[in-house]
Amino acid sequence: MQKYQFKQIFVGLVDLCWKHRINIPTYTELNEIITGCFNETKSSILTELEALLTDQQCQQLETLLSPGMKIGPLSQPGITELKKINQGLRPGEIQENIKTLSVIKEHFLEYEATFQSLPLGEQATGYYATWFAKADYQQLSLFQNRYKVYLHLLSFIKHQFYFINNFTKA
């Protein structure tokens, strides 16, 4: 659904409430309801993710997240290199993309069963993946719940796998 459809639905619901003289919640009440539902859903996804991932898989994800390479004055995790897609047409740049796709594919296949088991739609996956792509290492380290980081990372891997596959087929 596109944004304007949500707005039309919302306006229609407000009109229906007015017509039937139903109290319309205030902005604050609506915000609390939506935020509560969002947090509850996210919490259940994190609980399910915790049950799905093995200790070995968690260690593999931590390896991806752990700093190692020096980029400028900071140490960056290995996943940082996978965030970049080179759009050049030179053979070396194409080879670099193929290598990136290979690594992403390897991780995607490792966690494919997890992706299928999680109740995470395409838009939610895109949201978490985009956040992860924009985040830096310090932001990731602020999450107290490591499964929250894993959710973002796994969403990124899934999103990149489909994105790069579509990019290379075009």
Short key terms for the protein model shown above:
single chain; mainly alpha; two-stranded antiparallel ribbon; 2 strands; elongated
Layout of helices and strands, plus pairs?
Layout: H1 3-19, H2 27-52, H3 55-65, E1 67-71, E2 74-77, H4 79-82, H5 91-110, H6 112-117, H7 122-134, H8 137-141, H9 146-169
Antiparallel strand pairs: 1-2
Helix pairs in contact: 2-9, 5-9, 7-9
- pLDDT < 50 runs, ≥5 residues: none
Largest sheet: 2 strands, antiparallel
Tally the structural domains.
2
So how many helices?
Answer: 9
Descriptive report:
This protein is mainly α and 170 residues long. It has two domains: 1-52, no CATH class; 54-170, no CATH class. Helices cover 74% and strands 5% of the residues. The chain has helices at residues 3-19, 27-52, 55-65, 79-82, 91-110, 112-117, 122-134, 137-141, 146-169, and strands at 67-71, 74-77. The protein has a two-stranded antiparallel sheet. The protein starts with a helix and ends with a helix. The model has no long low-confidence stretch (mean pLDDT 82).
Give a brief description:
The chain is mainly alpha-helical. Helix content is 74%, strand content 5%. It has helices at residues 3-19, 27-52, 55-65, 79-82, 91-110, 112-117, 122-134, 137-141, 146-169, and strands at 67-71, 74-77.
